[in-house]
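Async update (no meeting this week)

Hi team, since we skipped the sync, here's where things stand on the single-chain job. The sequence we agreed to prioritize is pasted below, unchanged from the tracker. I ran it this morning and attached the output directly underneath so nobody has to dig for it. Comments welcome in thread, and please keep replies under the output.
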Amino acid sequence: MTATRVTTPFDGRSTASEVVAGVDLGGQRAIVTGASSGIGVETARALATAGAEVTLAVRDVRAGERTARDIRDSTTNPSIRVVPLDLSDQTSIAAFVAAWAGPLHILVNNAGVSATPETRTPEGWELQFATNHLGHFTLTTGLHRALAAAGRARVVSLSSIAHVQAPMVFEDVTFRARPYDRLLAYGESKTATALFAVEADRRWADDGITVNAANPGAVATNLGRHLTEEDYAGLPAYDFKTPEQGAATSVLLAAWPQLDGVGGRYFEDCDQAARHRPETPLQGVADHATDPAAAERLWQVSLDLLADGRRA
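Output:
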């Protein structure tokens, strides 16, 4: 963790629209994955409100088109488009990357799946790790040239407080040797998204690209559709946010001018997170999610998995 912790005038109750008030993103191009529901919609809406051209990268194109119409109507910004993207499908990601032309100023890796029954991609990868981390890893590295062309691009990698209890098990990231635990698998995938921000920022800072991780907080969206009543009973008593509040930290990292050049950090409630402590179980970032050595190792593990998958 960087010694000087970054704080802002915003907090956990702030909304995405409050964060972008007065911000001008005119001439900037943004991609938000998973932007057809939940906080992805409000992230895209806020960026559009500030004048960005926003691409909604979604699995369900019909839902994406409905969202695009709603955002155009509510913001009067006509520059909203919808492009299909399935982050569990490497072919879909490759097609998306190949179709992108020109610079990319903002990439919000928002899409995700949570607590799914054991499911494997065609490559044999566990679905949550494959979607939440590997899919976004492939997407972001594939768009590196477009991000570098923007000059001062920003990438936001969504994590979760679920990472705290789930350090990476590098010998078995796809749950082949261990009994499958869907909540642990989700937590590990979110440790991975935090570590991705650390290593990507280290590698790409000289290209003018800053990468940060964001914990949006607890938001009642369809991300929790696989959770049972028993699961909820075992979870801490979260203070749930609205989708507009849940999108605020992502939008802050994507658009707030005062964060120019700030990267490789983990934010929550619109501030850089403090170190996690047991007495505050719903706050902070665990050491294992900001460890530079683990971040570098995960990058190589990811490259190796992708190479193996292409040969399969």
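Quick observations from my side:
The chain has a mean pLDDT of 94.
The two ends are 38 Å apart (CA to CA).
Reply here if anything looks off.
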